[in-house]
Amino acid sequence: MAKFNENFLDLKESYLFSEVAKRVAAFHQKCPDRTVIRLGIGDVTLPLGKTVVEAIHTAADEMGRAESFRGYGPEQGYDFLREAIQAHYSTFGVSLDTDEIFVSDGAKSDTGNITDLFSKENTVMIPDPVYPVYVDTNTMNGRNIVFINGTAENDFLPMPDRSVHADIIYICSPNNPTGACYNRTQLREWVDYALENDAVILFDSAYECFISDSDLPHSIYEIDGAEKCAVEFCSLSKTAGFTGTRCGYTVVPKAIRSVTSDGREMSLNRMWNRRQCTKFNGVPYIVQRAAAAVFSEEGMKEARKMIAHYMENARIIADTMKQTGISFTGGINSPYIWFECPFGMNSWEFFDFMLERAGVVGTPGAGFGENGTHWFRLTAFNSKENTVEAMRRFTELLNTDPS
Length: 403
Ligand code: MLT
Prior knowledge:
Oligomer: single chain
CATH superfamily of the largest domain: Type I PLP-dependent aspartate aminotransferase-like (Major domain)
Strand order of the largest sheet: 2-8-7-6-5-3-4
Shape: globular
CATH class of the largest domain: Alpha Beta
Order of helices and strands: HEHHEHEHEEHEEHEEEHHHEEHEEEH
CATH topology of the largest domain: Aspartate Aminotransferase, domain 2
Largest sheet: 7 strands, mixed
Mean pLDDT: 96
Low-confidence stretches: none
Helix content: 25-40%
Strand content: 15-25%
Bound molecules: D-malate
Number of domains: 2
Number of strands: 15
Number of helices: 12
């Protein structure tokens, strides 16, 4: 009989957002007349921008004509998109070669798929709380994980502990779920730590477009030396409403190298290229044209407008937390608001309580790690009207007797 990967037995029974969806579906069945407001999964609600939609139409027409039809594209992405991404990076003062940029179907896949490039023996350092994909994918591979604690005391921005060694370090900034964002000095420390340990940082910058403080870095490559130790993942899902359209990009610098015990040099960039050519046939041409349109002047204007809309919702949620005296982080450089559960409840208790009593869905902090046991995440991705109504219900809920 085929032996299955027993590491799967170490995973939680179901993926966080599937469990949330299951509980919401059960509630719907029980109370079909109740209106539920979803501030749970970070899924966008605004439609694609006009420029993006036009690019999709044009590309679809091209695909329908023999002279402009395209079959398999380059696994790494078309040059027109890699060049647009390169130009986007130059706005942060980061200079990349186009062959360091790999177009993909999103940061979720790539932050998991990158584990193919690393030996099972590596120790992986993962913040707690954090986006569950990092833990789940490394658990599937049976790697040793050390957690670093994000707590209210360190503003959910854990810093390196020199007494602990790691080979691979995941950092998500602006952070999902806490919304906390590392500044330059803090990222400098992480890059120094990685260089001292010959480690690789896997930097998830999926929310970089939500950064509003002008002195915060958008890319880890704004820190000198990061090009020797950091891979960066980004996505258009939240930037331009691509959660259903699927397009992201990963930067694998050519300067990240390692030498085997018998003296053979290895390049992470070449390995990722090799991996992608074997396992991935690239993002559809139509989607890549849509993505390139995001980086046009008009496309970026539309994206900024969407982000401003969501950040207004974030402000409404953050104001409610302030008015009700609840401790929270996020909501300024991030579409997530992370707050301490009221009534001393744990996060799944509060999830059920808020769903049953107020018809509002959020995401329990426990799904992002142990340190989230008593914390909860709300997203700013719904409409303004629904966000205002959700906060009205939330405030009312806090004034009820929980028993
Ligand atoms: C989230 O809600 O954390 C995100 O939507 C998950 C994702 O981007 O995959």
